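Would you mind writing out the residues of a protein together with its fold in token form for me to study?
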Amino acid sequence: MKNNDPLATSGLPNLNRNESPTEGRPAEPKYLILVVDDSPDNLAVISLYLQHQGYRVVTANNGEDAVAVATQMLPHVILMDINLPTLDGLGATRRIREIEALRETPVIAITAFGTEGFQRAAYDVGVSGYLTKPLDLDRMHQLIARLLSPTNSGRLSSEL
């Protein structure tokens, strides 16, 4: 299988759940999600899960790359680890919020730090949601779906 997108995490086709693989027509996922984490294992697990849910996925493994990829690809949602090399997730989110085209893009903080202080700091820089590790992937998917729903403003006041 050939994948022409150099930033995609997998060459696996994304099939519509109502379409059998034998029909050979991969569905065109409509939402692009940027997953940012410095752990290759976390990137792989989250990316494959989201692709299985029908999303297109691009990745970055540090804050500087997250800003660059977000600027180039204009994702619909960004999943941002907080503890990152070169530029932490809070700094990357702050920079992303300064970019007009990304100002309203939902950013979900993903971190092992569940304290109220970390949550407050994350919401202060403009995150739309906050999830703690180890991730509950189904809960993550529900939060993404809420943020992408047409009736949602892209911002939640608290974790799902």
User: Anything to note?
Assistant: The domain at 21-148 is CATH 3.40.50.2300 (Rossmann fold). The chain has five helices and five strands. Confidence is low (pLDDT under 50) at residues 1-27, 155-160. The radius of gyration is 15 Å.
